[in-house]
Amino acid sequence: MNVAGLAWHAILGFAKSLSDWQKMSVESRTDLEALKAIGKIVAIVLQRMMKHLAPGITTAELDRIAASALSEYGARAAPPLVYGFPGATCISVNDEAIHGIPGERVIKPGDVVKLDVTAEKDGYLADAARTVPVPPVSEAARSLAACAEVAFRNALPAARAGHRIWEIGMAVEAEVKRSGFSVIRELCGHGIGRTIHENPCVPNYADPSARGRLHEGLVITVEPIIAAGNGRPVLEKDGWTIKTADGSLAAHYEHTLVITSGAPILLTEAA
Question: Considering its fold, how many domains does the chain have in total?
Answer without folding.
Answer: 1
